[in-house]
Amino acid sequence: MSEIWILGASGRSGRVIAAELAARQMPMVLLGRNASALDTLAKTIGSEARVVLASSVEAIVRELTKSRPLVVINTIGPFTQMALPIARAPGTHYLDIGNELPAFLDLFAMHDQAVKTGRCIVPGAAWGVLATESVVLKLCEGQPPALRVRVDNLAVVDATGPLGPTLAATVLDNLGYGGRRYDNGLLKRVRLGSDRLRLTLPDGSIIETGSIPSGELEAARRASGALYAVAGFPQMPPPMVGALLPVLAALLSIPAIGNLARRRFAAMEAPAPTRKVSWAHARVEWPDGRTREGWLRAGDAYAFLARTVAGIATRLARGDGRPGVFTPGALFGPELAVEAGGAFVLDPA
Q1: Contact 205, 188 (CB under 8 A)
Q2: pTM listed for this prediction
Q3: pLDDT at residue number 22
Q4: Side-chain half-sphere of 271: how many Cα atoms within 13 Å?
Q5: Any idea what DSSP says for residue 257?
Q6: In the chain, what are the domains?
Q7: Residue 282 is inside which H or E element, if any?
Q8: Which uninterrupted H or E stretch holds 337?
Q9: φ, ψ for residue 189 (rounded to 5)?
Q10: CA separation for the pair 304, 126 (Å, rounded)
């Protein structure tokens, strides 16, 4: 079918993506658990989108296998559990908004299979991955492979209400996975929140970040060719609290405790943003000692996400992708971030 399917369409991310696709007059199918919520969404965005109900990953895969849509947008977390089985559904291009490193690695392991079947798979079609890797791509244009790269995701979300299950699963699954960085080309385990960095933003504000095991880490490594890579995120716990994270990670790995924690965390109210601007930061170092630093500036990260996903889905629907597994910037270039509302602030080459 020529339709674009949105999985989890009535969630926070699904709603803004559906509205953006409706503005582009793209044919859609809204998939989720709640028929009333999906019907209301279709009316709100002024779309004649079809509604499909599915309440489990198995049911979703059955629907995709039966209908074989042209493009599938997956907004359902945790992506460590949902990405791989949905991406394996036959006969469709796939993109998601996930940021969990294990899910990234699982999907990139499908590259050869995707090439053989003529399918395009794009994980991380959201603010963090596209914004940070786009800065790296701009800094590395015309350069040899780098030695070191560091990226930092400083998103701002202008939203109220519960955090929701997708964000809750992403945060807690990353905690449970523990810290990671690339050392001499190898993925190494480190303490979550290590590699702390005090950043002065282009607007003069100061934020401290620490390492997390995110999709940005893999995207930055691939974009730069660096042997050493770190990905950071703000508001990491202080050292004393960070020392307890391995215990927390062990507890979250117990299914009953992990599921309860996800439900409780998903119901928490999103904190009010203290800034109005989202920033993505990258610093690249080459073997000869040269360094460059840059930023991407945008507004609300959810608005950026909606434009990113809609832009990629529209391109895939008209046949502009290519077979394999790619991050958004690797597939369509850093200009995709500009189309989504970003502006680069780069030091001189």
Answers
A1: no
A2: 0.88
A3: 97
A4: 7
A5: H
A6: 4-126+303-332 (3.40.50.720), 127-301+340-346 (3.30.360.10)
A7: strand 278-285
A8: helix 335-339
A9: -80, 135
A10: 7
